[in-house]
Amino acid sequence: MSDSLLSIKDLQSGYIGPVSLDLVQGRPLVLSGPSGSGKTLLLRSIADLDLNHGDVRLDGIAREQISAPLWRRQVAYLPAESAWWRSRVGEHFESFDEQLFASLGFDKSVVDWEVSRLSTGERHRLALLRMLEREPRVLLLDEPTANLDPDKTAATEAVVQAYCREHDAAYIWVSHDPAQRERLGARQLLMHKGQLQGSAA
Q1: Buried b vs exposed e over 50-75: b needs ≥16 C-beta within 10 Å?
Q2: Is the pTM of this model over 0.85?
Q3: Do the Cβ atoms of 85 and 116 come closer than 8 Å?
Q4: What is the average per-residue pLDDT within 66-70?
């Protein structure tokens, strides 16, 4: 079995690549770079949402050996703008973890809220909770705190880090905030013109 939770070798998808990196439990990754450098495209390729090729493995098992729905459940992508397909918040969840929801500022009443009333920040936080409910092994987070105030940002960082400790998971977190990158204490890589710069191991 591979020592890496997620192993990527020579991943290419149109504008990006080839990209190689190893994501190890306890050693998460923060990705930065200018707009248009390929950060979102990289996350989408890892999640197998866009056409790509390369050797991508989860716990040493090749992506091709795992069904697409299961791969996307285990290697979960949280986009900058989340999709909501039903009218009420509760219709997007199978259960309600009171403590977890409270940690991001929500009480039980949120399940009855209309999605249309949600602010951008509320959508971000609820989309994260929706993703965590599926218990992924790898979290691909595309600027998950971009529209949050400092308190909600800190709470989101704490929830993600606690989840990864408790579930032997890891994350790749896209962030433009140097202070956040330092707080997360993760490896930092820079993306430029579709290529990673820095140590990916």
Answers
A1: eebebebbbeeeebeebeeeebbebb
A2: yes
A3: no
A4: 95
